[in-house]
Design a protein that fits this description.
31% of the residues lie in helices and 32% in strands. It contains 5 helices and 8 strands; from the N terminus they run E-E-H-H-E-E-E-H-E-H-E-E-H. GO terms for molecular function: acyltransferase activity, transferring groups other than amino-acyl groups. This is RimJ/RimL family protein N-acetyltransferase.
Length: 195
Amino acid sequence: MAFLDPVTLQGERVVLEPMTLEVVDELAAAVRDGELWRLWYAAVPAPDQMRAAVEDLLAKQSAGAVLPFVQRRRDTGEVVGQTTYLNADRPNRRLEIGSTWLARSTQGTGINAEAKYLLLGNAFEAWDCIAVELRTHWMNEQSRAAIARLGAKQDGVLRSHRIMPDGSLRDTVVFSVLQHEWPAVRNGLLARLSR
């Protein structure tokens, strides 16, 4: 399988399927669970902006820059969020996992941990990545803690890195998992998921 070729990744709790325009309404319903677009430190599209956000991701996918996924509960088939491979650097075998959000009712259920297990496993085992980054807003303490629990190491903070939709400046915390760290991270995630 070539780098960033669309792929469906399936676990026990979640199925990550390539994003399409057909799921816009389901994504809009999922984002309403917790009104995630209201989090000032996150860039989550509001329900009425979902079609434009999906079209933007699909255009970037066509350009070979990203691979967006819909997160679907395996037990109910319900769409509960999205996640994306982005900032792909093929020559250096690096990419980022980001643009991730989950409906509030599914947070803390193991879906996020399993999705990261699937994404990291595919990046390291199918695409032979050297490093995978995960980034978040400095103020998003819940996300920072979740990334650290995955076993990723904090590389640093990019201060005033991005301008947010409200005009504020985002300090971006950069974490990564390196190829030689993946076996330990994989074992830790499997232990968490087996509980």
